[in-house]
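Re: the pair you flagged

First of the two:
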Amino acid sequence: MPGKIRQYFRDKKDDVQDYSGGGVIGKLVLALIVVYLLVALVLGMIWSSEPDTFSVREHTRSVANTMEREPITGFATTVTMIRIAETLLDKPGGYISNDIFPPGLWLDNMPNWEYGVLVQLRDLSRAMRKDVSRSQSQSAEDKDLIIAEPQFHFDSESWAIPSTEAEYRRGITALKRYLDRLSDPQQADAQFFARADNLGNWLADLETRLGSLSRTLGESVGKASVADTVESAGDQDPLAESAAGEDVKTAWTKIDDVFYEARGSSWALLHIFRAIEVDFRKVLQDKNAMASVRQVIIELEGAQGDMWSPVILNGSGFGVLANHSLTMAAYLSRANSAISDMRDLLSRG
């Protein structure tokens, strides 16, 4: 048996030599390819590391000191949006969702993490343009937010002409101009209205986002669709046993994709809610909603816990192995419940 194994590797070595031509140049090319693949493997592991969280308050204070401005209402939220967008582009490996060469081409988890962050950045930029920067429905839109919002909605996988990074940096630049005008006492054309209705409108959109993520994460183990179950229930005999709906289950190849999209969304939302706690403090206190905000932050911090497993496990709900998707779904569901409580409190007079 050992002889057959040695012979197998000798044959493979001969095949490689025949393929490379057996000369010095062929061996050099082969060596370069091997080195390239090893370097790409190491870089891929580094680039797959998720960015650390940061202190919104400290970062806001630092930027305000650098600009020599007072951190007025709206400063923390805008600064946080800029930091989130810059992290998306400047983290180790940069923005890799549009990479066409290894190792970025091979990576799977980080592009989904980036997409989760991007969705939250897009939703908040739309809320800033549509509601937060305007006093009423007849008010003019902010000239810089008009630019920033569509820039972040640019194709997330465009490699060139134009590149995704270039378009997103245009959005960041527009946000910086808005921040400069907002914090400049000599300019009164940039506004940030920290009102309950503005916050409530964004929270309504966020509820549907988190609800969809929680549902998809929960489908990692497969379960009957509510719509199918209700539709299959007979209306002739109310005592008849209702038929179970068809199981809906996330494909095993997509489980890690959904998980890391949720990780990216929760990472971005954690910082956004920390900024909201600063800028909307007055209205949150008036509506007794501060406890709900802090509960959301606690759940999102839990969703950012360290991953000790090299792969996303998909054990059954009460089985021996962990199910990372269900754990993430639990955190997001509790955060969504607290968001629902926030909306209810904000809507009261």
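Second of the two:
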Amino acid sequence: MTRSAADILKPARRVVVKIGSSLLIDPETGGALAARFAALAGDIAALRDAGTQTVLVSSGAVALGRRRLKLADGKLTLDMKQAAAAAGQTALMQAWNNALEPHGLPAAQALLTWDDMENRRRWLNARATLEALLAAGAAPVINENDTVATAELRYGDNDRLAARVAQMVDADALILLSDVDGLYSADPSRDPGARLITQVEAITPEIEALAGGAGVAGTGTGGMASKIAAARIAGRAGIPTLIAAGAADQPIARLRESAPCTVFAPETSRQSARHKWIAGAVTPRGTLVLDAGALTAISAGKSLLAAGIKSVDGAFARGETVALVGEDGALAAKGLAGYSSDEMSRICGLKSAEIETVLGYRRGSAAVHADDLVLERKA
């Protein structure tokens, strides 16, 4: 079904907005474009007032650090890029804080690496931190942690990082602000007959072939190819992606009024994408044996409580996939463990109110939350 930017954004509860270096950094001076930061901050404040939370994924640290360290033009070695990121990250956050603070939005820095996003335990910890920041009314500003990331374990561009963040925070939309207003049938700077492709229902080889190189030389690493790759990641999680121009005043407000852009439709619904991810676990890390009452409860769409667990087998961390079986050993469901195997062994059979007494803390009342559970059979 074709959906406009307005259809997607007006009811959105949460969005992830990625902003590239070419929009934030003056290519002549290498400094921050304060007016651009201010305009985007106003947009984010307007989203907040409309009931939409925003997570920012912002490039610009390396470019700002290059200027502060007076590094020569040209490609940087990995160690010098890490040095530039370290020097520039404080300047980037200062620019965002100066822009967001007048709107009552505290800027909160979060630096993530590939390993943070692909390691389930770190992913859960990062998600919990972002959820807490949003609940506190802050504006999380995320960047790849170039200072410590190695060449082998880097996303390399913030487009794909933004898609992973959109998955992490269960966003309703991913907005990739660019120096063009979307994907074109040809390079619009060379072909006056190039047309904007407003809807992409599926990312085919033909769509991928339309991607060009990076944007403004010397300021960014992402191009249309990385944006299409990000749209694929988000789409597989059921999240639509919007590629739009970010240089105009109030680019997000314009999108809410259906400004020109390219909308990449998700491949599936968010719920089914999440459930497919859980169900696709080849080898669960552990097994929870449930009593008859717990089997009936999860079959009715309820969360698994510790009281319904008879025993725990295997070694697993919080957030890893576990098999839920009956006392006959038959597989009933798969799900993501809300507690580690050690914790689960200590609380199985207990009422929710008793968990904190035994562990000294409580991560939640559910051993496996209903949203993180996929049934294999009915009780």
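DSSP finds 15 helices and 15 strands in the chain.

-B.
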